[in-house]
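Re: the 600-residue chain
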Amino acid sequence: MLRSMAIICLLSAFIILPVDGVRTHIVDDDDFAQFSTIGEAVTAASDGDTILVKPGTYQEEVVLEKALTIMVPPGESEPSLLDGSGLTVGIKVLADGCTIEGLTISNYQGPGIYLASNGNTVRKNQFYDDLLGIFLKESSENVLDRNQEWRSQETGIALWQGSNGNRITGNDARGCIIGILLSDVADNVVTDSLSRGCVLGLNLTGSQGNEISGYQVLDGYIGMMILEAEGNSFNGCQIINNTEGLIIAAGSATSLMNSIISDIGSVAISMTDSIGCQILNNRIERCEGGFDIGYSSGNRLEGNNLTDVTFGLYIDGPSEESFDNEIGQSNQIDGVPIIYSYGESDQVVRGIEASHITLAYCRNCTVEENVITNDLIMLFGCSEGRIAGNIIESCIGGIRLQDSWDNLLAGNAAKDNFGTGLFLNNSSYNQVEENNLSENGINGIALIYNSNNNAIVSNVIDANREAGIRMNYSDGNTIEANDIGQNLMRGLWMEASDENTVTENTISKSPMGAYLYNCSKNEIFHNNFLENADQAMDQLGENSWDMGNVTGGNYWSDHSCKGDPCLGLPRLIKGPAIDGHPFSTMDAWEQPKASSAGPE
């Protein structure tokens, strides 16, 4: 005790003996110092003075309208705690040039420190259970250095409305809703900081020209979100073990370079309505998805290495402009290049190993005899192309056509993929022949929403987990001579699809051979229905299951009759519908008819 009193007396001498007009004031909640509250010391101090806050608990709100330094005395190990139980703001800084260092600020219903002035330094403070840790509004040229914000109910550090040119370095936000928020601000620098266990690690909204480097976002929900922001750069950042990685929405000229995004439960980088972004030389590891880009143009992706991702690249949008992006072969999935082509004609991609192939708004292109290792082959807005002899096995999908027409898809093997073997969406007049579309996780072939007048001929479509062929709102297609067997739900599944012709197919060994719902004017004849648990069902439609007593209907393995076609024993179909002239023998329609004329 005598030693402590001696130290206090020695420090108190600075109050009595100022140097160049600068004084040091001591605050101690045990009444051994001149002041028992920080507010009393602030009232007594002048610009340039220092206030030393001894360890203890101070339940107060402090307002700085003078350029003061508030700090913990050197060598102290116990906290100097501002306790905000029932209070709103810990320290509100209205004067320029203040320094706050080493305090512990807890339980305030607003920010622990609120900066509304310029050129301040906030260093090595700890914040616990405040609404916000540090809040800046129209406050510029400040330094926020090595602070810790734990369990902030909203945000660890928030820069708001015109807080420009600040430097945020070495800060640590844990268990907050948002680690760091930059909203309507510009030209701030965030370096070597950490967010752990936050709902959103970094939120940058309506802001320009900010630089973020060495920022780590760990163990949270969303790593970083960039919203309606322009010209911001990210370099050497890490987003690890979050549900979502980086989201860029309505952003322009964002750059992400030399960063690591890993262990993401959903998509590593998602871009929507974004223009002119640069995504360069990043590592993406162990993520559900790599890039999901929609409604975005003029973006450049180069030198990104993706490892152990379920899908690497997906691009979509309502117009051609959405696909006008530069995506080079220097982007790789597990060391295998991504192939992306926009607006090309007469291009040939042949005989290579690719992790992904996308052709967007290309004409008369050839994709032939390639091996796809991870994603799929995607055609958007393409016409007159030839997609032939490719192998897509154990990938995210097989072949997908969107808004594409007059293409030939022949001799491809799209097998054992996570999704559908061949997916046509709003794609018409394509020829699909002699492909193997089997053992896929959803359907063998899907024709969806105005995929009309396609020819699906002589394909093997076996053992898919849902349907062999699935059709929705697609009309006028020809389904002919396909082997459709052992699909786990239905061989042929048609909904709201009209005027299709289904002929000379073998549909076998599925729980339901053919299922039609709300379909009309389809012609289903000369098919073999073999050993399906339910051979067929036709509900809420008017379709033809036979073409009269000459052409006949279908062969049903569970129906016995005489004649090809039978004339006296129709096959009833659940729904109800009827095959009035079934065949008694498989493929009997292929046999020449015996002449009815007598010998000459």
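The helical segments are 2-16, 38-44, 548-551.
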